[in-house]
Amino acid sequence: MTDTAAVPTATATAASATTPSSADLEVYRGLFQSMTGYDASAAAEDGQVPLQVIKNLQKRVAAFHLSYKFAIDELTTKIEILQEEFEHTHDYSPIEHVRTRLKSMDSIIEKVQRTGTAPDVDSVRARIRDIAGVRITCAFVADAYWVADMLMAQSDLEVLEIRDYISHPKPNGYQSLHLIVTVPVFLSDRTELVPVEIQLRTIAMDFWASLEHKIYYKYDREVPGALVAELTEAADAARALDAKMARLRDQIRALD
Ligand code: 0O2
Description:
By secondary structure, the chain is an alpha+beta fold.
């Protein structure tokens, strides 16, 4: 008897307990087929597919994520080098914290659907460029731009896109400098140019964004108007704090 397993449905693959829409299922099926070569619709009658296909899928998902993880590792090393160099030579680092994240399969699928990306691996790789993310938090606004410039000057990183939400905040008050760069990942038989989204922001901007993110998801993206207004006020306060801290730093530097 052949080992079989159910065709991937959202209950099998998604962390969320909500019932998947038919559009969600289309994306799951498309990616499943693209990753395994197995036509899931052929298994629709009893909903079973060979276990080997599922095992193959697990391997493909892990391999898909791996190059993004390597790209994060490469970029993290670059940032650590800058940090250490600064601490040695200037007794000061413009970088306060670094956080990394790999987009989960569920978030990738949600974005595939939202952006109308074709549900196959090549299209996902080409169109979704924030699967690997690195967030750099700095004390001062000028430091965020300074670190961005240092990274963009590195000859092996290619800058694909710059979105400056610091000089042009989003309507809700969100501020951050976003770069999409490709990082070369040297594998045993090839070099992959892997896109990574780098977000640079101040501590105040990060404080605001993490709270806003929690509220946004708590209210399932439908944040009540009063709370939106308060968040916008808080974003203004964060911006004012950043400006004040920069002025204070300038005054202190003038004393040196
Ligand atoms: P997570 O959990 O941080 O990964 P999109 O990814 O389609 O929503 P787009 O146009 O591709 O957006 O890129 P954009 O606008 O540069 O923003 C991508 C990321 O920036 C988001 O990723 C957030 O991390 C952050 N971001 C953008 N706008 C906001 C905002 O209004 N509030 C907060 N808190 N963060 C924001 P993800 O995948 O949405 O989230």
